[in-house]
Specification:
49% helix; alpha+beta; globular; 3 strands; 3-stranded mixed β-sheet; Arc Repressor Mutant, subunit A
Length: 135
Amino acid sequence: MPYSVSAGLVDKHKTNNPFDIASKKNIMVIYGDLGDTLGFFFSERRIRFIHINNELEYMLQRFVCAHELGHAVLHPKINTPFMQKNTFYSVDRIEKEANTFAVCMLTHNVQPFDSETKEQYCLRNNIPIEMVSYL
C-alpha cells in the first residue's frame, strides 16, 4: 500500500519533492530544535504539520519530510510519539510503512544503474543508507 499511495501522489503532483507535495496538500512544514528527534507529524484543529529538526542537513530533512508525509497520508489520526510514550502498542509497523512510503516516493521513476549496489542507489537518491532494506 505505501508504494501505490506514494506513486499516486508523485504522479498527481508531478514531483517527488516531499516539501512541494506537503505544500500542495496544505500540510505546513516547520523547523525547530528537536534534540534527538528527527521529526514528527501532528495535526491540531484540522491543521496538519510536519515538524523537522532544524539541525539536520538538507538531504536528511528531505527524507524526514517524506517519512512524515507518509504518516500524514497513511496514518493521519495516529499520534506515534504519544503511543510510544503512553501505551504498549508497537509502532514498528507504522514506522516501517512510513519508511517504505518515503523510499518509494524519493525513488519513484528513478531506475538503478546496471552495476549499482543498493547502497549506491540510496546515496544517489539522497536516502539514508540505513533504509537500504526498504528497496
